[in-house]
């Protein structure tokens, strides 16, 4: 059965790590491998940042710059394959961060529920105590008056 779908070339992270020189520079962004060797001199952000990110996953640095849509489209020119290994690692970390966030949101939710109940209960308790304390001191005063009269 003939298929028109182009098979994606898969690289290991170890293979990508071998391309770290100005004349042979690869990076990984969102699990895709880019051979940017011919782009080093033309990169508006300079070649030094690219060299620093060479041979590894540069997704975070790439996103932090806030590259334009034109820059993202331009990346396709340098796309040479995939590195699913790195993508999987990234997704696992993202999932971990998400579940931690979910856990802490759940904890905050519980505490706010507890406070919602505790604050009115505490206020009621204080009001009740003040009322009783007031009554008791009336008794003391009345008792003292009665003793004086006797
Ligand atoms: C194939 C990959 C890349 C392409 C095609 C690309 C393209 C571009 C383009 C067109 C700009 C001009 C501003 C814009 O239009 O957004 C730019 C700026 C820049 N890029 Fe890249 N870039 C790539 C990878 C990277 C990576 C991996 C890093 C960091 C490690 C990086 C860091 C920067 C910086 C620092 C600037 C300058 C931003 C500024 O002056 O405001 N770029 N890039």
From TrEMBL:
It is found in: Membrane. Pfam families: Cyt-b5. The chain crosses the membrane at residues 110-130. SMART domains: Cyt-b5 (SM01117). It comes from the Eukaryota. Keywords: Heme, Iron, Membrane, Metal-binding, Transmembrane, Transmembrane helix. GO terms for molecular function: heme binding; metal ion binding. One of its GO terms (cellular component) is membrane. Residues 8-84 form the Cytochrome b5 heme-binding domain. Belongs to the cytochrome b5 family. PANTHER family: CYTOCHROME B5, CYTOCHROME B5 HEME-BINDING DOMAIN-CONTAINING PROTEIN. This is Cytochrome b5 heme-binding domain-containing protein. It comes from Physcomitrium patens (Spreading-leaved earth moss). The lineage of its organism: Eukaryota, Viridiplantae, Streptophyta, Embryophyta, Bryophyta. The gene is LOC112274528.
């Amino acid at each position: 059965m003939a298929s028109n779908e182009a098979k994606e070339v898969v690289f290991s992270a170890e293979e990508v790590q071998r391309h770290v020189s100005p004349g042979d520079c690869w990076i990984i962004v969102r699990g895709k491998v880019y051979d940017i060797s011919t782009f080093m001199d033309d990169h508006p952000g300079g070649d030094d940042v690219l060299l620093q990110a060479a041979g590894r996953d540069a997704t975070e640095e790439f996103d932090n710059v806030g590259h334009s849509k034109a820059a993202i489209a331009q990346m396709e020119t340098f796309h040479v394959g995939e590195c699913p290994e790195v993508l999987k690692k990234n997704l696992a970390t993202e999932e971990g961060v998400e579940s931690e966030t979910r856990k802490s949101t759940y904890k905050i939710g519980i505490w706010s529920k507890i406070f919602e109940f505790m604050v009115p209960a505490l206020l009621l308790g204080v009001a009740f105590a003040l009322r009783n304390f007031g009554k008791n001191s009336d008794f003391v005063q009345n008792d003292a008056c009665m003793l004086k009269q006797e």
